[in-house]
Amino acid sequence: MRSVYCIGEVLIDFVAEKQGKDLSKAHLFTKKAGGAPANVACAIAKLGGKSKFIGCVGNDPFGNFLLNILKENQVDISLAQRSKTFTTLAFVSIDEEGERDFVFTRGADKKLSYDSSVRKNFKNNILHLGAATALLGGDLEKAYGRYFFDALTSGTFLSFDPNYRIDLWRDEADVFIKKCMPFIEKSHLCKFSLEEAQLLSGKKDTNAACDVLHEVGAQIIMITLGGEGTLVSTPKIKKTVPSIKVSPVDTTGAGDAFIGCLLQQIASLQSPFEILENVTLLIEMVKNANKAGAITTTNFGAIPALPTRDMVFN
User: Fold this and answer.
1) Angle of the 194-201 helix axis to the 173-186 helix axis, nearest 10
2) pLDDT (tens digit, 9 = 90+) per residue, 259-306?
3) Angle 254-267/36-46 helices, nearest 10 degrees?
4) Residue 243 backbone zone (phi > 0: left; psi -120 to 50: alpha; other: beta)
5) Do residues 180 and 200 touch, judged by C-beta distance below 8 A?
6) Which residues pair with 45 in a beta bridge?
7) Is 39 left (phi over 0), alpha (psi -120 to 50) or beta?
8) Residues 6 or more apart from 138 whose CB is under 8 A from it?
9) N or C: less crowded end of the chain, CB within 10 Å?
């Protein structure tokens, strides 16, 4: 089985559960591990795949906690880095419907430095680029771009998830869009929320949004639609794949579980590029990925709620 390299942030989520969506009114917080690329790496590993995390944490107790969580979930952390800068934090409120409000305090994730020795490992593997903080500048953005170039020149299968957070890009959505375009242009698989697809394409209609994003260069597009399932779009077909019915309590990490499950399945193929032509296989994989995402919403916290292989493939 191929390895999936996940690049980006890992952070502490301080979660206020069932205290309303207004973060200003929350008063009790629980410490949990988070960060979209780290969530994806854990999702892959918990499903029996091989994932390697590339990111940076502080040389502090929170950093120790995060790396221990990744290790406990069978993620390879040999490429993770430590920094004197404090570990990145996020404060999250969750209302009764599982919806969230975020405040980020950015720290060590931006200190990731590029390691040229990693390039040789990309060939015949998969690179997943999660962009929640990776396009905000700092050493991380530089490293992110260089790893992206390394993957392109190595013939690596590329997956991109913009992980748009409005609080990080308030009044600068145009900058976010511009920075995402090179990754959309060259990635084989792009996963978007409905909000992201509409923002990046400039189109409200999902089919029109897909058409625009295909024109940019995206070969396979996934638009997650919550309880309605996922819109799968290739230059040849558009199909909404339904999800299973659940009663969500926390939507944190659902999209990461989805893309993690999809990448775990792609990594098990003889060639990951097989899904570019085999639409029937792709649709079956999306059914499983929808299930993984739905199961994740039934518990609090991203990583603890991620399903095991037996929960998805039964």
Assistant:
1) 100
2) 999 999 999 999 999 999 999 999 999 999 999 999 999 887 788 899
3) 50
4) beta
5) yes
6) none
7) alpha
8) 110, 111
9) C
Element of type H or E holding 68: helix 61-72
DSSP 86: P
**Two structure tokens written together for 314:** 């039964």
* 8-state DSSP, 292: H
Nearest residue to 76 via CA among 55, 52, 40: 52
Neighbours of 216 (CB within 10 A): 17
CA distance 16 to 122: 39
Cα separation, 105 vs 64, in Å, equals 18
Q: Which of 229, 246, 249 shows the shortest CA–CA distance to 238?
A: 229
Six-digit token pair at 92?
Answer: 């999250």
**Alpha-carbon Rg for the chain in angstroms:** 18
What phi, psi does 33 have (nearest 5°)? -80, 140
| CB-CB contact of 98 with 248 (8 Å) | yes
pLDDT digits (tens, 9 = 90+) for 120-163: 999 999 999 998 899 999 999 999 999 999 999 999 999 999 99
> How crowded is the C-beta side of 26, counted as CA atoms within 13 Å?
22
- Assess contact for 58 and 83: CB atoms under 8 A: yes
Per the CB < 8 A criterion, the answer to whether 193 and 222 are in contact is: no
What's the pTM value of the predicted model, to 2 decimals? Answer: 0.93
Instruction: Read off the tokens for 305.
Output: 């709620």
Tell me the one-letter amino acid at 219.
Q
